[in-house]
Amino acid sequence: MKQIKLSHVSGEFIALMALLMCMVALSIDAVLPALGPMASALNVSDTNQIQLVIAVVYAGMAVGQLFYGFLADAKGRKVAIYLGIAVFVLGSLVALWSDTLEMMLIGRFMQGLGAAGPRTITLAIIRDQYKGNEMARVLSLVMTVFIISPVIAPLMGQGILWLFGWREIFIFLLGLATVAWLWFWLRQPETLAVADRTPFSVRETFRNLRGMVNERSAVCYVIALGLIFGAFIGFLNSVQPVLQGIYQMGAAFPVLFATLTISFAGASYLNSRLVMRFGSRRLALTAALAVAGLSSVMYVFSFMVLGVPPLWGLMIYLGITLFFVGLQFGNLNAMAMEPFGHIAGTASAVIGNVSTLLAVVFGTLVGQLFDGSVLPLVAGFGLLASGSAFFIHRAGVICSVRSLESQSERSDLTQ
Asked: Which CATH class is domain 10-188+202-414?
């Protein structure tokens, strides 16, 4: 498929892709300030139990991604996104009318199930047009806009909570989904030509899946992505009880959360500049090792002060850590997608499904281990970043061995 030069990509395209990708993030971050009032309204007394309102969105996203990927490769990118937004709207309505935790979790799961469509297929739309470091650069630009959503979403959520109530946050999400649907329908052309579509078949699906599994370096990148994503979900699960519970930040929580996510957004933008010079793998590995090392130091310090370091120290640690986490997402996604341009929709779905399932498991575990201290959060960052670094390194070794084997085969042929 003909690729569009980066210079010809408009800011509108970057913004639209970011909006579609951030439907999950907005569903999470706008609700964070309302967890306390929501728990009271739904008669939930366990602080760790209300965290499921966050985790179940990601669980729905993980389940939905496979379906949308197959649909996008068979019927086109736009059909899959239309369906996803429709399911997201239904889930938002269920959440809006919930009067029990169980009903709320169903609505939130549906939100994640629906948002999986836009979240997955935007990657396929980008992969339809770019590859390699150029794709990583475009993804970083999209992620830069995308990551701004955690900066403003909690502030908007807090404002809506003050002016109206927590249910009106879901009305806001409904309006946002409507805007995204109209914008996408009016302005975004289909990027998968009819001739390039692959009708769904069980045999072809398993053949593609076997091909993906055989790309061992890509598998390593997917696992690495799942682990570092898990650390981030653990952060999202823990940040509200830590800042509002331990440190009693109350209404200041959205401001502190926004401050932390600015470093995340800055990393994504900086990565768009650095990746063309240093390469995706080197940046991702360096960032993972930095998170692991910094978290080890922070864990020892926090343990010495009984698990509750000074707020300023925690904020500095989290800001730097999230910066390095931000350097990994775009690069790991791009490296995992790189070999699969011919099945970009399916590949994006499988990569998203596996990495998100891993992330939900580890991120939920980190959140559920909250014990009134920051130790589980810091340990989660350290251990999961260490695992991510191991698999990034392993992928590099596999690529190096494959390159040497290819050179040896070419040398034998010339002789």
From this structure: mainly alpha
